[in-house]
């Protein structure tokens, strides 16, 4: 299959590394990107683009350090700080594409409308891909591909909870997808809803100019700064030796780190769930906003009226000017039959988080449909390389029954280990992903030749 064509949907992080993986094995990648530039969520624009999923706000800083989020064969420049503003990640992706000559394989301004099996799929495993030029849906083009790599990301459709009375609220309502700067909230009274990284960022930034900010948390939030002991990036603490410890020890360590910065009980942050079973908010500013009263925590919203927000504990915020929902995103595979790629993780069965188990031919893969404890790019890179090897027949998938059994087992294990977080994609630890693909460090080699790395790899 060395000269066959592979369609890649999306030119974000997972799409770029998929193009490269195809080229390395002699395949012909054709990447369809609906927007006019690469980068996916890292491509900033002042306004939400048509059909855009997640978007950058101007103050965004990465939650993963440069060492953990770089591709394996393309490190960040030496003068790069440990954590990066979004525009430096965008520049990094541009440099990556230029260095490996990836851009010529991308068709910008091209939207995939539909993917369907060809008539001879049972023999060839081929797919028909129908596309249109963005903004011109009248002219449709059809092409046949030998395989498809779905790289449209997990942040496809903004999710806003159905709070009673929201339609009656007369103030500004927006999703964090639309948020860019705090300027429009100057002197306003604002509720921010959510417990993730974006919620913390938005609340802390708006608090600098607003008259008052309220952070509505359904189940509290574990807040951790980006830096750990001695200024080490916190995500570099995700070592095998740590993640192989009993859960109660890991949870105790995380809670100790969180409360060392701000007492969660005193400021309404305490979660009923342990840290490994709940979203963790990586934020360096929210603690200061809480202790100065610029941000006040509230429980889950229960109702809106024209000018008021009511919460589950019966408290209210009157004279409310705006509400920002930093409540995440849901999946959307609008171009695919739902029997193959459903829009919810409960029904989406991906063997090793890549191959749909419903297909009789392993010629469609999904790259990057996960949420990790750690950085994403190295995992996407690993998934893309493995998918290409499967396309080529260099790696074989087991039969459908075996794959389904593995999928069910993996889902159960992840729920038991990390809990069920509503509307969140499959949540895994980087180390667990590496082990799924049978990548284990040779610890004794590290002991002999590079002892400093041994603690990072010990199991």
Automatic annotation (TrEMBL):
InterPro entries: FAD/NAD-bd_sf (IPR036188), Flavin_mOase (IPR000960), Flavin_mOase-like (IPR020946), Flavin_mOase_1 (IPR002253), FMO-like (IPR050346). Its EC number is 1.-.-.-. Broad spectrum monooxygenase that catalyzes the oxygenation of a wide variety of nitrogen- and sulfur-containing compounds including xenobiotics. Catalyzes the S-oxygenation of hypotaurine to produce taurine, an organic osmolyte involved in cell volume regulation as well as a variety of cytoprotective and developmental processes. This is Flavin-containing monooxygenase. It catalyses: trimethylamine + NADPH + O2 = trimethylamine N-oxide + NADP(+) + H2O; N,N-dimethylaniline + NADPH + O2 + H(+) = N,N-dimethylaniline N-oxide + NADP(+) + H2O; hypotaurine + NADPH + O2 + H(+) = taurine + NADP(+) + H2O; hypotaurine + NADH + O2 + H(+) = taurine + NAD(+) + H2O. It comes from Branchiostoma floridae (Florida lancelet). It is a single-pass membrane protein. GO terms for molecular function: flavin adenine dinucleotide binding; N,N-dimethylaniline monooxygenase activity; NADP binding; trimethylamine monooxygenase activity. Belongs to the FMO family. The gene is LOC118410527. Its cofactor is FAD. Keywords: Endoplasmic reticulum, FAD, Flavoprotein, Membrane, Monooxygenase, NADP, Oxidoreductase, Transmembrane, Transmembrane helix. SUPFAM superfamilies: FAD/NAD(P)-binding domain. GO terms for cellular component: endoplasmic reticulum membrane. It is found in: Endoplasmic reticulum membrane. Pfam families: FMO-like.
